[in-house]
Structure formats: C-alpha cells, structure tokens
Amino acid sequence: MKKLLLVLLIVAMICAGTACGVERSNTPENSEPPVNEGSEKSVFHTYDDILKRYQELLFDNDKTATVDPVYADPNDGAIEEALQTTVINSDTGMMGYAIYDSNGDGQTELFLMDEDYHIYAAFSQKNDRPVLLDLFMVNNHCVALDQNGNFYQTGYGKGEHAFYTKIMRMASGGDWEVLLEYGCSDDGTDDPYYVIENHVKRIIDLQEITTLQEQYDAFLQNPSETTKSSGLCFVPVM
To answer: For the chain, where are the E strands, in sequence order?
Structure first.
C-alpha cells in the first residue's frame, strides 16, 4: 500500500512539473518590448546638445573627441559632420555662436561663427528638432546676414571664372527661400551669365550682371561687417 501511494505521489509531481513547464514556455522570458533596429534615440535634440558637442570638439586637445561617432540617425550624422568641419576650418582664436530669429517668425536659428562674425554653419528646427541648413567657408561659399533678415551667399562654381551669388531668406518651415540667384556658369557657352528669379532661369548679358553686382555685392565686400549690423550677438564658447 505504501509503495502504491509513493508511486502515485511521484506521478502527481511529474504531472505538476510538466504543467508548470508548459505555462512558462508561453510566458516571454523578457517582459520588456523588443527594440527595433534604427529606433535608437536621436543625440541632438536641442541647440544645447549641438553646442555641448561643439565645445567638446573645440577644446579637444588630445583629439579623442574627433573620432567619428556612429549615429543611427542620419540627421545626427549630418550635424556631427558640420561641427567637425567648422572646427577644422576655423582660422581664429575665438569661436562661438549666435541664436537669432532672422525672419521674426518666433523660431530661432543657430549660427556657428567666429569673433569676426564669419558664419561657418547654420541650423534651423523642424518638427521640434535641430537640422543643418548649410555649411559655409570664410574664403569661399561665404554668407552675410543683413539687418532685414536677408542672407547673401557667394562662392565659386565649376570652371575657371564661374561664380554665383544668392539672396535668401529663412522660410517659416525652417528652410532657405532663394529670392534671387545670379552668376556665371562658365560652361563654354556664348552666354555664360544667368539669373534665376521665381524659379525661372534666364540668360543675361554682361551689362545686367554688372548691374546686379553693383546692387548686391556691397553686402559681400565685407560680409563680417554686414553680419555685425544684422542683430546677431556673438557668444564665445568658453
């Protein structure tokens, strides 16, 4: 009788263990939701995040911060590249920035610049996140901002004599709005001078291009002085 009871007890224990095993197999081992690839959070949420990284790169004496980090978000990668390019191309002892609402729409832009008011990079915001607008160089593709919120960008294009000048404003959506562009394409044609207005390109002669240069190039003769009068306030990175 005792042997029979012992056998029944062993069988009951085996059945109970099997039932528990089935129940555990239907329960996820990890109760946390799975993380999908590419769902990593953005690094640059605000202008402060950009400025913090900017400061790290400027004061990176041992060059450890200049090791290219890998960002899952392409927007973060573009911002990082702009920061490193700005630091590498800076040719002054004092770098800084300005935060300014250039078109008066209540949305500020971030400008990386030096103490002489040369603008190296411009950032805006889209969907409550900072985005890179453009990169500029001191000696080529430079930009100036006037007191009316107009940006004047000039630079050299492809070809020995190619050049361009753009007059732009900041659109409400955080993008450039090109009001006028003119220049020389230097593509081997008989009519190399052009102007683009209202998204329409037309060929112009030397007299018209000279008139445009006389009208607008004054802002780019000394872009830093033009920008100083715009309302931007340079803040050094300490």
So the answer is: 95-100, 109-114, 119-126, 129-135, 142-145, 151-156, 163-170, 176-184, 193-197, 200-203, 235-236
Q: Please, which residues have CB within 8 angstroms of residue 102's CB and are 6 or more apart in sequence?
A: 109, 145, 149, 151, 169, 170, 230
Strands 200-203 and 235-236: unpaired
- In which order are the strands placed within the sheet that holds 151-156? 142-145, 151-156, 163-170, 176-184, 193-197, 200-203
- Burial label, 219 (beta-carbon count in 10 A; 0-12, 13-18, 19+): buried
pTM of the model: 0.76
- Whose tokens are 């005792």? That residue is 2
Please give the distance of CA 54 from its chain centroid, rounded to a whole number: 12
Q: Cα–Cα distances in Å, from 107 out to 60, 117, 129, 192?
A: 31, 21, 12, 39
Tell the residue number behind the tokens 């004061």, with chain if given.
Answer: 59
Nearest to 37 by CA among 68, 72, 78: 72
Least confident of 57-61, 70-74, 89-93, 96-100: 89-93
| Cα atoms in the 13 Å half-sphere on the side-chain side of 42 | 19
The dihedrals phi and psi of 121, each to the nearest 5 degrees, come to: -155, 150
